[in-house]
Amino acid sequence: MHPNYRLEWSRFQENMTTEFLERQADLVKKYKGAHQFIMHDHPGAFRNDIDERAIAQFIDYPGMNIYHYDQDKSDGLRISLFGSFARSLKPGNYLVPETNAASIGWNSADQLPPYDGQLRLNFYSHIGSGANLISYWHWHSLHTGIEQYWRGILPHDLKPGRIYNEVSRIGNERARVGKELVNLTKRNKVAILYSIDSQNGLIQQRFDNNMEGFVNGPYESGNDSYLKIINRFYKALYDLNIEADFVFPDGKNFEKYDMIIVPPLYIASDKLLQQLNQYVLNGGHLILNFKSGFADENSKIRDQVMPGALSEICGFTYNEFSSLRDRIPLKGDPFQVGDKNFVEQWAEFIVPTTAKTLAAYDHPFFGKYAAITRNEAGKGVVTYFGTVVSLEILKKVLRNSLDELKLIGADQNLPEKLKVKHAFDASGKAVHFYYNFSDNIMEFKYPYKTGKSIIDNTMVEKNGLIQFDPWDVMIIKEE
Amino acid sequence: MHPNYRLEWSRFQENMTTEFLERQADLVKKYKGAHQFIMHDHPGAFRNDIDERAIAQFIDYPGMNIYHYDQDKSDGLRISLFGSFARSLKPGNYLVPETNAASIGWNSADQLPPYDGQLRLNFYSHIGSGANLISYWHWHSLHTGIEQYWRGILPHDLKPGRIYNEVSRIGNERARVGKELVNLTKRNKVAILYSIDSQNGLIQQRFDNNMEGFVNGPYESGNDSYLKIINRFYKALYDLNIEADFVFPDGKNFEKYDMIIVPPLYIASDKLLQQLNQYVLNGGHLILNFKSGFADENSKIRDQVMPGALSEICGFTYNEFSSLRDRIPLKGDPFQVGDKNFVEQWAEFIVPTTAKTLAAYDHPFFGKYAAITRNEAGKGVVTYFGTVVSLEILKKVLRNSLDELKLIGADQNLPEKLKVKHAFDASGKAVHFYYNFSDNIMEFKYPYKTGKSIIDNTMVEKNGLIQFDPWDVMIIKEE
Amino acid sequence: MHPNYRLEWSRFQENMTTEFLERQADLVKKYKGAHQFIMHDHPGAFRNDIDERAIAQFIDYPGMNIYHYDQDKSDGLRISLFGSFARSLKPGNYLVPETNAASIGWNSADQLPPYDGQLRLNFYSHIGSGANLISYWHWHSLHTGIEQYWRGILPHDLKPGRIYNEVSRIGNERARVGKELVNLTKRNKVAILYSIDSQNGLIQQRFDNNMEGFVNGPYESGNDSYLKIINRFYKALYDLNIEADFVFPDGKNFEKYDMIIVPPLYIASDKLLQQLNQYVLNGGHLILNFKSGFADENSKIRDQVMPGALSEICGFTYNEFSSLRDRIPLKGDPFQVGDKNFVEQWAEFIVPTTAKTLAAYDHPFFGKYAAITRNEAGKGVVTYFGTVVSLEILKKVLRNSLDELKLIGADQNLPEKLKVKHAFDASGKAVHFYYNFSDNIMEFKYPYKTGKSIIDNTMVEKNGLIQFDPWDVMIIKEE
């Protein structure tokens, strides 16, 4: 189908929903009491047919249903990703109207109830991301209908069991410490730019051929080019224990962040490109990806030498590109990642002007072009990926950039499955959440100011050694 | 779709056909002569949209088209499975209106004519299962139309050839010994419960994720959860040279059998569960599978502690279950099957009350639950599979149970591809059929009473050594 | 669907298009000037719904869009195959109205622009096959619409770049030497019989089960049984540096060729079979494939002993056949191809009368039948493949037959990726085209009469050593 028309059609679809919801919200506002609020319940994030950002503007709270994997795939990634997204839609907190109670699914074939402890770990994972409410779907397992196997807190026999007991423990803890964990705020230094138009533009003009994506949770096809890159960058940050917000093509709040990561910004207005220029010139560190700036807001390919209005800050040009049929190594394994030294799917024929080549292709033809570049422009820096790099290369490049920005610290040296999140309570006190997403006991040294472990109400000294049970959580609030 | 409504819809579909055929049968009965009989020609067994059991009640003979694999996949399994099913629909004998003459298929792409000798071996395989007629589709290969490549006894050149010569040999033998092999009866001690409702219930609420099934013949998708278990148990019995009948949810004839195997009886009325209870209490050995008793006759999940009305005879309860993403070993390889020591797809969280745990999962979380149990109840025994076990484990567990019932003998020690069947002629004499489903010469010691090899009219002594050509058959009738 | 009706339907479809185009051509002929000509632009060869041969009869030039692979898959095969086909539709020359300028594709996911030098190599590859025009689709890359990524000579920035420079070089060379390369003629000794009816007949009655085919270019499914065999034989010839024409079921020009290769001629009239008989009796060498002569022009399977009217010249009969589930070796590896000693997919049960068995199956059952035979009939020879042989076996058998016909020479000893084509100019002078389809430098000894390298205007002595750049071409015209 005609790509220009199709993009416009996707916007028409989004607007239908936005306008309908806004009319509903207006009605409710007329009659609701001051103690009441309006939430819209999103069935998941990054929907290509719903403009979640627009909807957030006229409601009080974004609600985000966050269904995730459990058992051996339990890692908190989906909870954090969707949480970051919901939190950024309308800066503040968000609600989780639905999440896994037990096993989920519209049929009996994929029933994966949580292991012991995972339900509680997930609860605090939501909280650590800024959720103000976690509510389970649903109370008891249904005996009839299509959700017979979307199991509730009670089994079909309606008798309190293993799941009920875990929820009961969570409820008791919440009653005790909940007030300390509500309305938390974040002060993240890294943001990712999410463009629903680029998602839709790349659904038609995808750059990859069945690249293996990072499917971060159930009911995700993993086949969408754009979301694969979002997931890949978020996964790299999550592995590095770096928390991130999202920003949007309206250009708001760019200046709050030391680093903005831009997944392929295939669709962009002149104004947005100008805002990205300004961000860099003012001192920001932009992580740009291939295909950014390629088409305008009508999916019309620009008739400029690429990357068009970004050429100056990027410090290079290209006017050809190629799909990569096979993985290609980077010359000299510049990031020391051994058998992960490969790029794939796409290569822009980048010829630097002022940019420094961070990595080039090890290939007779593509070898003359740059694969990853770095350019200083104004007070800022642009790091550009002209290709899809392996996750390991991605983490190395990001870590180098974060290091320049002095964002690398103790968190980045924790064991792999020990995750950490940070927030501030209403009085401005720092709260540190530690999560053990493994079935092993773990140890680590607590590096922040002396504080109180708020669940068991004990003091934790700076540099004190902390031991952790499998699937356990620890929340420390600085004094 | 709504599972309850869908099950009812499948019953409506079945009834449409049943009522139509019954009306036709009534008409024919009015006018047919006493020497004539009514047969319905089923295109295959275990159809989920045809209630074969109901139809059998108003006709004289079930007719079952049995198309099977030939060449290297020739093993008699489909002939026996469909034969057992047809024979049990209306206890007595059955007819085979269609079976492979030569290669079959609606196109040219899967033409697999039998190797020399296989046609005759298959003929006696039908007979040994109780067939009273074997008729080939069709006389000569058609030159036009969609069945151009469903080849007949004569090739397209209409000249007698290899296939004709084999059929001619069969015909000559039949003329000579056919009267000795008609109206044979079976005295099997093992039955399998077939529930068309459970098949339909599990089409919607399947328990497996693309589990590899035992496809026993052509034109079978092998994708139906319930039929995979039927096929798996029948295959295990067939490998053990144990013949079996089928019983149905009407509960008739349960008492005739020492052992009843119950594939996942997902849909069951209270009455049927009561009959199974009674069978055990009266001394029967029930082999029960996971999900049995879970839903009532409307596909409504029961609100009892599971396995509901079967809990007492099972000697355990469960109220959770999980899909198994990966194969899990049983703790300690209790059946000594080496690399076949695994279970898969499904695990019920079984907590025994009176049952003995025959096998438990080797897994940090599932390890606390029983995988296979055995419980004595009244005069009987229930062996329960809470998971899908490997074929090798299945054979070991079944063999142990059969041994307790004194159903293990010489047949179970024959070489792998030497199959045996038993029947009784009109005068009550035992007939033993031996089949060599291989291209090797085989030897075995005949363990039954001295009898006559009825094809070549020679005597065979008890314990006499018999030598067998590839794809050959031997039929011995006791004196 | 009914195979007979379906074949007729395919002919009806073809005729609709033929008649429509003929009416259009008649209109144009009325009004066009003497200097003008009529071309029809075919979007690719071997279309099963377009009778390209019939259409060629009332136009001046067949036009053939030849889109091909580039980069590492660049081998000239598609250019040669489609070129041979176009050239044979109406003996003479053909035009290429569209071919790759840069990367092609209706979306961004499979962009593979040529490596340096490939564009020019492809240009001369068309010319060497007899093309009189090569025209690129298209001038500049489009900024909107479904062909946004079917890139042109100019990139989206509309500035001359790498591709433009290559086209410019080609254009300059053409201005200089084009007159020497127009209206070239071929004197090939080998032809392949293409039967659109057999293609359609075998779409319904295919003989293979997902056999891996030789996909020779983009936008080809590779799933059509008949085309797989066409491609396989053409690939074998191309690998041997043997150029071939196509002949058609109208039987014209058979006598011009020393060898005619007949892919499965599933649909054939009595007359065509008679013409093939005559070709052999008069001294031709026929390479026949399985299923030839099986059905008449109505897709009715013949009621003769097979291969029917071809039996006499073949020197054997068969009346059964089998699909081959697995690859089967030939007894004794008669062609010395090691792990490529296998046949697959199909086996006719061939019993020779006068034919010599060139190879038999190494199999307990199929072993009694011949796999490949050779029979002398009249002054000619029939080599028959009763099965699908590996590409390596195919090349060996073809090479043996070509050797008998004295068609093996220096061309057949060139390095693998060095291809050669031969033609004659208007004055009858021989022109030799050499192509280096690799990224290595290559050397070879020029074996023909002393001539002039027409691009660089230097003399090349007979037996002179020639050195070749990667992706380079050399064209030598004998004095």
What does this structure look like?
The structure is a homotrimer of 479-residue chains. Chain A has 479 residues and is of the alpha/beta class. Chain A folds into 3 domains: 3-181, TIM Barrel, CATH 3.20.20.80; 190-406, 3-Layer(aba) Sandwich (Rossmann fold); 415-478, Immunoglobulin-like. Helices cover 27% and strands 22% of the residues of chain A. Chain A contains 10 helices and 23 strands. Chain A has helices spanning 3-31, 52-56, 77-89, 118-128, 162-177, 196-204, 225-239, 270-281, 311-314, 391-404; strands spanning 39-42, 61-64, 94-96, 131-134, 190-193, 244-247, 259-262, 285-289, 316-317, 321-328, 343-348, 351-352, 356-360, 370-377, 380-385, 387-389, 418-424, 430-436, 442-445, 451-453, 458-460, 465-468, 473-478. In chain A, the strands form 7 sheets. Chain A has a 7-stranded mixed sheet, sandwiched between helices. Chain A has a 5-stranded antiparallel sheet with strand order 17-18-23-20-21, with helices on one face. A 3-stranded antiparallel sheet of chain A has the order 10-11-16. In chain A, strand 7 (259-262), helix 8 and strand 8 form a beta-alpha-beta unit. The radius of gyration of chain A is 23 Å and the shape is globular. The termini of chain A are far apart. The model of chain A has no long low-confidence stretch (mean pLDDT 96). Chains in contact: A-B, A-C, B-C. The A-B interface holds A 71-72, 102-103, 107-113, 115-116, 141-146, 148-149, 155-159, 161-163, 439 and B 1-4, 204-209, 298-306, 319-323, 325, 364-365.
Strand content of chain A: 15-25%
What overall geometry of chain A do the principal axes of the alpha carbons give? Answer: globular
Helix percentage range of chain A: 25-40%
CATH topology of the largest domain in chain A: Rossmann fold
Strand order of the largest sheet of chain A: 6-5-7-8-15-14-13
Largest sheet of chain A: 7 strands, mixed
Give the overall pLDDT of chain A as a whole number.
Answer: 96
- Can you tell me the number of structural domains of chain A? 3
- Count of discrete alpha- or pi-helical segments spanning 4 or more residues of chain A: 10
Structural class of chain A: alpha/beta
N→C terminal distance of chain A: 60 Å
The value of Rg of chain A in angstroms is 23 Å
- What is the name of the CATH class of the largest domain in chain A? Alpha Beta
Low-confidence stretches of chain A: none
CATH architecture of the largest domain in chain A: 3-Layer(aba) Sandwich
Find the biggest chain interface: A-B, 30 and 27 residues
Oligomeric nature of the chains: homotrimer
Strand count of chain A: 23
- CATH homologous superfamily annotation of the largest domain in chain A: Class I glutamine amidotransferase (GATase) domain
